[in-house]
Amino acid sequence: MTDAETKFTDRLPIRVGSRPQTTDCAPHSQIDQLPEQATGKKLSEFMIEKIASFSDVKTGASRRAPPGTVGFYLDPKCAASDVRCFLLGNEFAHVHISDDGSLHAILAEPLKSEAMEKGWAELHPLAGQPTVSPDTVMIYAPRDEKEATLIVDLVKETWRNARQPCES
Asked: How far lies 77's CA from each of 103, 163, 166, in Å?
C-alpha cells in the first residue's frame, strides 16, 4: 500500500444517509437516491472530464457495460499486467452516464473494504466470477459536487493501482 492510499483511506468520510437500492444482477444498476436528471448528467460530465484528465487515459464506450456507458482506458503501455486491476482489457472504470450516474471500478484492498464499510460502494454481484475481478465494485452515483469530487478521488486510486511505469 502506498502513502497516497493510506492517506486516502484515512480521510474517506462516511457517506451520509442509507445505502441506495441496487439491482442484484447484471446490469448492476442503482435504483434510488439519484439526483434530478439534469443535475445527474452535470455531475457525470464533471466526473468524466476529471477522470479523463488523468495521465495516459482515453475514454470510449465501455466494453463491460450497456450502451451509453463511458469507459476509461489506460494506455496499454502503462497498464499493469495484473488483470484484477481492470474491468475488461485495459478499462479500469466506467460511468453509467445515460442510466443512473453510478460507476463501476476496481478498488484494491484496503480501499475496497473501507469504501464499502463507509457506504460509498458495494461489491458487484459478479465479482470473482470468471472474467470479473474480485475487486469490482459499484460506486454509488454522486448526489452533489462534493460527492462527485470524492468519487473522482476514489477512481484516481483505481487508476494508480492499474498503472505501471510507461514504456517509451
From this structure: 24, 9, 5
Query: What is the rounded CA–CA span in Å between residue 90 and residue 150?
Result: 23
Total tally of structural domains belonging to the chain = 1
**How many residues are there in the chain?**
168
Range of the domain at 79: 3-12+24-162
Residue 19 belongs to a domain = no
pLDDT of residue 110: 94
> Are 46 and 69 within 8 A, CB to CB?
no
- Structural contact between residues 84 and 133, judged by C-beta atoms closer than 8 angstroms: yes
Q: For residue range 40-59, list pLDDT tens digits in order.
A: 999 999 999 999 999 999 99
Core vs surface per residue 134-147: b (16+ CB within 10 A) or e: ebbbbbbbbbeeeb
